[in-house]
Specification:
The structure is a single chain. This protein is mainly alpha-helical. Helix 3 crosses helix 5 and helix 4 packs antiparallel against helix 5. It has two domains: 31 residues; 69 residues. It has five helices and no strands. The mean pLDDT is 85.
Length: 102
């Protein structure tokens, strides 16, 4: 318990920033019109390519015997890839709605 309290005391400013960013994020997302929600979310999903690259870089620098970190890195790559592909699929489906029908 004292370790947790020491961690909170040492990182108080970072905790404040995280809490403030949560409130700002909720306010920003809460005021987005429903018409723009899907395009913004599909674009945000595509940004997860950064997660994929970061996970690959971290996995390359790990010791081969650190299996837990390798498994977590592998899961990050898989889930990030699914999110990127899903973002592009949603965007493609949205753009198909705006094409003129023959």
């Amino acid at each position: 318990m004292t370790e947790i309290l020491n961690f909170i005391a040492e990182n108080r400013q970072l905790i404040y920033i995280i809490i403030l960013s949560i409130f700002v994020g909720v306010e920003v997302i809460g005021h987005v019109p429903t018409v723009l929600h899907t395009p913004l979310m599909s674009g945000a999903n595509a940004i997860h390519g950064v997660v994929i690259v970061g996970a690959i870089i971290v996995m390359l620098n790990l010791h081969p015997e650190n299996t837990l970190a390798l498994i977590l890195g592998f899961l990050a790559v898989i889930l990030g890839t699914l999110n990127v592909v899903g973002g592009f699929v949603v965007t493609d489906r949205m753009l198909e709605m705006f094409k003129k029908k023959k």
